[in-house]
Amino acid sequence: MIKIKSPQEIRRMQEAGAIAELARRACGELIQPGITTKELDQAAYRVITGFGAKPSFLGYGGFPGSICCSVNDEVIHGIPGKRKIKEGDIVKIDVGAVYMGYHGDCAATYAAGVISENTQKLIQVTRQSFYEGIKYAREGYRISDISRAVEAYTVRNGFYQVRDYVGHGVGSALHEDPEVPNFLAPGRAGHGPRLAAGMTIAIEPMVNVGTFEVKCLSDGWTVKTADGSLSAHYENTVLITKDEPIILTVGKDGRHA
Ligand code: MG
Which residue of 6, 16, 159, 218 could cross-link 104, Cys pair, CB 3.0 to 4.6 Å? Predict the structure, then answer.
């Protein structure tokens, strides 16, 4: 069942979203060669708890970090630890905050030092594919309209959307209905849930250079590209309204990654 949020629930999600964005921003500003993924995790923890919120991911299904920190061919769910970021790495920060019982969830990809032109393109296409999708995050459209737009833009630019992991509804639970795939499965066009004002969804394209296929490592969490190619991730929590969609993972200054 897809939950419609009340104005009070939406206000709490806005608070949670602002905190998640500030944690994302703090990590983004710290990313440079030499920093460890654990140090990034600690920075996010300080920001989130400093606002009286809790990291959504910490302890979720036993996850040991406050953020997911995934480097290079790691797609999502990287566990923060001793790994040192190197020059030319790309680092995905995925962070959630829960405030007064409601979650905000967002992610972005950052470069450490100089990266190739194609890797820059990967990061830009991933981010833009979110914006192609959000054009359809409006009352009356279907989830599958978002999926189709995200995928079409990505394919046109020569990259691949991951299929085994998808975006999701978000609210009092980190993961709620509906699923928000980044690809259009056969027969799904014109089917599936319609969007309505008050729904809140996390749209989160995960884009690979070489293949949509991924594998999960023996740590039970880290997801990598099957072929070892690079991957980028971008996500915001979005409120459906009767008019323009509203991104909830924005700072008080109106900015977001
Ligand atoms: Mg998410």
Answer: 16
